[in-house]
Amino acid sequence: MTQSSTLTIRLPEDSMKRLDNLAREIAHPPADIAAKAVEQYLDVQEWQVQAIKDAVKEADSPDARFMDHQEVINLMKKKGKL
């Protein structure tokens, strides 16, 4: 079993009611649902922060190539994405 730590948070009443309702519907403790939600949030945010860092590093590289807006539009049309 993974070690855990305790975190106390304040939720708006409507969010707490939604959490309680969901917990009843799927027969899982609210704390387990909240822990899973935090894990999913962290996964997304960590991915996004890393993607931004990677993009900045690429943009700062000496061989970076930038396209103007119309060039991007033309490329997307050519690929059938617009």
Describe the structure.
The chain has one domain (13-78). It is built from three helices and no strands. It has helices at 13-26, 30-60, 69-78. The chain is elongated.
Q: Which regions have little confidence, pLDDT < 50, spanning 5+ residues? A: none
* Count of folded domains: 1
The dominant shape is: elongated
Distance between the termini: 49 Å
Give, in order, the helices and strands: HHH
Mean pLDDT: 96
> Any idea what the radius of gyration is?
22 Å
What summary fits the major beta sheet? none
Q: What's the helix count?
A: 3
Task: Give the fraction of residues assigned to helices.
Answer: 55-70%
**Beta strand %:** under 5%
Structural class: mainly alpha
Query: Using DSSP, what is the number of strands?
Result: 0
Short description:
This protein is mainly alpha-helical. It is 67% helix and 0% strand. The chain has one domain.
Key words describing this protein structure:
single chain, 82 residues, mainly alpha, 3 helices, 67% helix
